[in-house]
Write the structure tokens for this entry.
Amino acid sequence: MSGNGIKNPGLVWITGASSGIGRATAKLLAGEGWTVAVTARSQEPLEVLASECTSFKGRIRVLAGDVTDAARMAEIVEVLEGECGPVDLAILNAGIYLPMEVTDIDLHKFRTSLDVNLMGVANGLAALLPKMIARKGGRIALVSSVTGYGGLPTSLAYGATKAALINMAETLKIELDRHHVAVSVVNPGFVETPATDENPFPMPFIVPSETAAKRIVRGLKKGKFEITFPRRFTYLLKLINLLPRRWYVAVVKRATGWDKLPDAAS
Ligand SMILES: NC(=O)c1ccc[n+]([C@@H]2O[C@H](COP(=O)([O-])OP(=O)(O)OC[C@H]3O[C@@H](n4cnc5c(N)ncnc54)[C@H](OP(=O)(O)O)[C@@H]3O)[C@@H](O)[C@H]2O)c1
């Protein structure tokens, strides 16, 4: 499903822009002439990013903050719009992956995952939506994951937050179309970033963060609702998600080697 895509360089706000996908997307858009407001908890890497982009057509505006802090998110949007005018595009990308297995259930990890990945996006939406709805314009992209398509091992908390974001994006799209505020959901496969550096399992079709940024920006320009890549991996996941759930579970166990693990009762 497509709509009107982003066009001329304008003002974009990117959360989670100090590393990985967010950082690469910030650089790409600044290179195209966008004014890019960058948010993450740590100020220093954001300043480094800004210094790397001083000769670019666009510019970087550093506004550090924690996405779990609703008041700070509202303040960032106020400051930004006061200085630079309306936000044309927001990429709510900040997220954390805290692997968890059933034998290692950890409520702190659960709560942190929900706070950052889900409430972090809700806080961004609460800051942006009233303004975008009032002016009948703008686009919001939620960065979810193919993990949100269906259950995967070690994703007990992460997968649940990403499934919730896909659901949330669909609701936003249904309700926001009549307000002329555009919505996208970004569902990447594996991307080389600090978040995946430590993964002990094979990551098929993994792409560099610069490639991820190009795919995201291309999808936003086309006005796509769902932006997913690399398609040879993510379309395969979509396909197995069409299976009856019992078969889906069997295929995932087999593909991930989870069916080879010893029976805990033996
Ligand atoms: N890498 C992948 O394979 C992959 C695949 C699918 C989806 N994704 C999604 O893509 C997004 C970016 O992931 P990435 O791989 O680029 O991860 P990353 O390199 O670890 O970057 C995460 C970013 O989020 C920021 N962040 C974390 N907690 C925050 C908080 N409470 N408040 C504000 N900023 C916060 C981090 O900066 P600070 O620590 O300084 O706050 C950092 O800038 C995430 O939503 C992730 O779930 C990634």
In short: The longest strand covers residues 182-188. The mean pLDDT is 95. The domain at 11-260 is CATH 3.40.50.720 (Rossmann fold). The CA atoms of residues 127 and 175 lie 17 Å apart.
